[in-house]
Amino acid sequence: MTFRTKIPIVLLTGFLGSGKTTLLANWVRSPTFGTALAVINELGAVGLDHRLVAAASEAPVLLEGGCACCAAGDDLVATLETMFWNRLEQRGPKFTSVIVETTGMADPFPILDRLAAVELTRDRFEVAGVVTTFDAGIGPALAETHPEVRRQLEAATVVVLTKTDLATADDVARAEALVARRAPRAAVLRSGRGSLSADALMAAVAGAPAPVPGAPDAVHTADVSAAFVPLAGTYGWEAAVAALTGLATTERALLRVKGVVRVAGAADLQIVQTTPGRGPTRADHVPFPGEAPPELGLTVIAGEGAAGRLARDLATRLDGPAPKVDVAALGLAR
């Protein structure tokens, strides 16, 4: 009799800015995930996260321009099928597990349903756990206004409270209380500065209950769109902070800004990002594998169909010439 072992999938989800990519980039450097395949799903026309994970992962894959539970869902299944057959026929990496990083706007339940509905992914893969990152400081407030946050918690088998180094003890207690209500079956871990180890994560995944598929229809914030602002010049960091802070504090529709810019006085390209409730940050000495760096500029993600307007506002705040802004209505299913 022949016994067949399914390939485990860890579904990594969590809202925009909650720290998924930082954790993933650290995890794939570990021997625990040394033979893992990382599949990265991003919102917007210009992907970045897969470039960061590529520094450590053997074969990251980018699913561009959509959400894994909606527009890119079929692409996720197709990617897993292709990588499976390439692996079997020795035309691709010999991965033994898969980590799927969803977009910050993903509803995990339709992803679980879709993977279970397709014969190959159902028979050859198995979702070992749904890991949800949850910002210990601003997560509870986001859960009140964004249904994706609530669904990500409800689908979780493991919740990672992130950015605990930036949170107060009261913040952490408040976050843990919300997680206990929304994800009573989930194991709860803490992580500051992306410090949670891959071994600790997988021990929690192994001890947690199996994921449970839910309703196939995704639940989303209305009218989410993304816009990319090309920024080829060099910008002072103080001016960038003022522009990003001004945008984040005055525009309620803003969800996320992230990209790569050239900062005055810095030898390397800088990742610049901001999330409402968090100040602008940058990462020095950014590793970009391959011959070409990513396109310079910032992706603005916003609700209320406001991404294009906010992107042009951001360009004005940076005192740059009015750029051609590429806007994409993300068409998240509701």
CATH level 3 topology of the largest domain:
Rossmann fold
Q: Which structural class do the helices and strands define? A: alpha/beta
Into which percentage range does the β-strand content fall? Answer: 15-25%
Average pLDDT over all residues? 84
H/E topology pattern: EHEHEHEHHEHHEHEHEEHEEEEHE
Spatial strand arrangement across the major sheet? 3-2-4-1-5-6-7
Continuous helix count = 11
At the fourth CATH level, what is the homologous superfamily of the largest domain?
Answer: P-loop containing nucleotide triphosphate hydrolases
Uncertain spans: none
Radius of gyration: 19 Å
Q: How many structurally independent domains? A: 2
Count every beta strand, where a strand is a DSSP E run of 2 or more residues: 14
Topology at a glance:
Blueprint: E1 7-14, H1 20-27, E2 36-41, H2 49-53, E3 61-63, H3 73-88, E4 97-101, H4 108-117, H5 119-124, E5 125-135, H6 139-145, H7 147-155, E6 158-162, H8 169-182, E7 187-190, H9 198-207, E8 225-230, E9 234-235, H10 237-250, E10 254-263, E11 270-275, E12 278-283, E13 297-302, H11 307-317, E14 326-329
Parallel strand pairs: 1-4, 1-5, 2-3, 2-4, 5-6, 6-7, 9-10
Antiparallel strand pairs: 8-13, 8-14, 10-11, 10-13, 11-12
Helix pairs in contact: 6-7, 10-11
